[in-house]
Every structure is written in C-alpha cells, then in structure tokens.
Amino acid sequence: MTLDKIPRWSRPIVRLSLSTGLIVAAWLLATCGGPSRGTAAGGQVLVEYRRTGGIAGLDDHLVIESDGQATLARKGGQRETFAVEKDTLANLREILDEVGFFELEDEYRPERLIPDALSYQITYQQGGRRHTVETTDGSIPEEVMPILDELNQIIAEH
What we know:
This protein is of the alpha+beta class. Helices cover 29% and strands 29% of the residues. Strand 1 (45-53) and strand 2 (58-65) form a beta hairpin. Helix 2 (86-98) packs antiparallel against helix 3 (145-156). The longest helix has 21 residues, at 11-31.
C-alpha cells in the first residue's frame, strides 16, 4: 500500500500505526529469546538460576528441567542446550532437599550495597511447591552456598 492512495488527513495516523506495529514486533522478538519453560517431551522446570552483575556484567540464566535437560542463556545472546549428568542432577536435588530450600527466606541482602557484587536468584520446584531465593555477594547464607557451588559448576562446564 502506498500513501498516495490514502486521504491526506489520515496519513499521520497510518504512519503512527505502522511505526507502533514495528515497535511491538521488535519488542516481541527481543523478549522471546530466553530459555524454554519445558522440553518438547513436556519436561517440567526443576531449577531456574540467574546470576547477574559483577565487574564483567554477567547475565547467566540456567534452566534445568526434571529430566535433566538444561538450557543456558548468556549475556550477548549465547544459548546452549545440554543434558545435566544424572549424578550431578541427583546431587543437586539432594543439596536442595538437605538445606530445606522451601523453608529458606525469600531474600538475603547485605546491609550496605557492594559495588560489582553478583546477584543470584534460585527457583526450585518440586512436588507442586515452588520457592525463589534471592541473594547477593556479602549476604549469602551458609545454607545457600552448596547450591550456588553446584549451579556455578554446571555453568562452568558449559
């Protein structure tokens, strides 16, 4: 369609509509690139982990499904899908259960802001329950450290 065939008084409206449509399309494309919420086989998310910040400006997003399938999305759009080893998956589940993840507080924050600190968000789903814990360097509780160690090791291997 050309603007020549549109009445002069409605041309600004058409331009605005087209511009708005392009912006919405660009936004949809930009926000649809995160890790999947399930596999084609229908796996359920077991753990979702996000590590952000630091001097390097990290933005790692790891999703591990109950069947061991995992997706790691990194800053810059890098994305990898892989299978977590059975022993590693079993160890992660054991750690989450041993520390009583569902009883942990929702948030652990330092008294003072720490420049270039890493922030962590861990969501665990099991047996119809779901809980998210957020923490930052300088305020990580002892119970959360083994979970972070295990998740960071999975990221380091990929």
